[in-house]
Amino acid sequence: MNGILIKGSEALESAQKVTTVVFDKTGTLTVGRPEVTALRLLVRMPKVDEFNSALKRLIALIGMTEANSDHPIAMSVEAYARTALGMTKDASFGGRVKEFNSEAGMGVSARITAEALTAFLSTLEEKEKEEPKFLKSVSSGSFLEKAEEGRFTLDPSSTIEDPAEMSVLIGNRKLLRVAGIAIEPEVNREMASLESSGETVFLVAVNGAVLALLSVADTLRPEAPLVVYTLRKKLGLQVILLTGDNAASAYAVARKVGIRRVFAEVLPTHKVEKVRELQGNGGVVAMVGDGINDSPALAQADVGMAIANGTDVAIEAADVVLIHVSLPFWEFRFLFCCLPFSFLGQ
Ligand code: ADP
Ligand code: MG
Question: Is 344 exposed, middle or buried (0-12, 13-18, 19+ CB in 10 A)?
Fold first, then answer.
């Protein structure tokens, strides 16, 4: 179905007065189905090309943790882990973790006992020796930390045993900072180089040791540059990108779609503040989002627009629901500038 659902006439009225259009990034300017492009190991692991038990255990921990989150990033990581582990359709990561926590705008964490990990691994079918395809995405980072005692180790030759309980943290720099885990400059550089191409990079830490980085790439909606161009050049509106993602990745996406103003690394709770700020400067603000974390901002905006693949909460919060598989180019023209007649006349 294609179309537009407007709740209340004020939304239509405000839309004609809009001065500023704020876009969420993930799921709005991008399709919102990121895919894992790289898993880089940051600890010593001599035989990476062997899909050995250490790598399998690490990917299992990652999958078991992310399976509890419904963030688009989590879905992509879970799908990656499922393929990596050769899981069948009916196989599940199950609710095997303790104290799962989702930190909005930062990432996820959980505690997993060695017992639970072993129990999960025993549900996997033994695969023949052939090298799994996904291993192409696995590489060693330039910085390799030495495995230390009492920590989950990736070194298969190590005699160190995994601790009885593992605390898994998967998320961005902020998540690690809050947990008091330092990020080596080499790791930071490695993250930055992937981020500069627009990818979203985050880290996996187990018991305080940063073991791996994961990078995901999302596809731009092909019509996004045209929508931004029309809003800026034809309708003379200010267009802003507002995202929780890091600045390098946000600017890379902004550049690709033609947006000049970027607010990056904005926590979900602060997105609403940003909208208020723009309104305070006399702006009439339209916010376009998919609602994963941005419902309050959608509600605060003079016109909140939810993309229909967004969540129910977003649809609840929005004044306008765009039932569309793509960014609503024609609807934007209709809403922000002209009367329905001219829209129909196009
Ligand atoms: P956006 O504004 O792009 O929708 P979010 O505020 O939802 O972004 O998330 C911001 C950042 O937090 C992500 O780019 C990612 O680095 C991190 N993050 C959020 N959820 C997860 C997760 N489940 N796993 C790993 N990282 C995550
Ligand atoms: Mg989002």
Answer: exposed
Residues of the chain with pLDDT under 50: 1, 147, 149-150, 325, 338-346
pLDDT in tens, 224-245: 888 888 888 888 899 999 998 9
Tell me, what's the pLDDT at 42?
85
Helix 185-195 to helix 247-257 angle (10° resolution) is 10
DSSP structure class, residue 299: H
Nearest atom (ligand 1) to Cα of 293: 7
User: Is any atom of ligand 1 closer than 6 Å to the C-beta of 292?
Assistant: yes
Q: Which atom of ligand 1 lies closest to the CA of 201?
A: 16
Element (H, E) at 103: strand 98-103
Residues with catalytic annotation?
Answer: 24
Q: What is the pTM of this model?
A: 0.82
62, 205 contact by CB (below 8 A): no
Ligand nearest to the Cα of 205, by number: 1
Q: For residue 243, how far is its CA from the centre of ligand 1 (angstroms)? A: 9
3-state helix, strand, coil in the chain (%, to 5): 40, 25, 35
What residue's CA is closest to ligand 1, atom 8?
Answer: 244
142: CA distance to ligand 2 center in Å? 31
Q: What is the pLDDT of residues 145-163, one digit of tens each?
A: 554 544 566 666 666 667 7
Q: Is the Cβ atom of 108 under 6 angstroms away from ligand 1?
A: yes
CA-CA distance, 298 to 291, in Å (whole number)?
8
Whether residue 243 has its Cβ less than 6 Å from ligand 1? yes
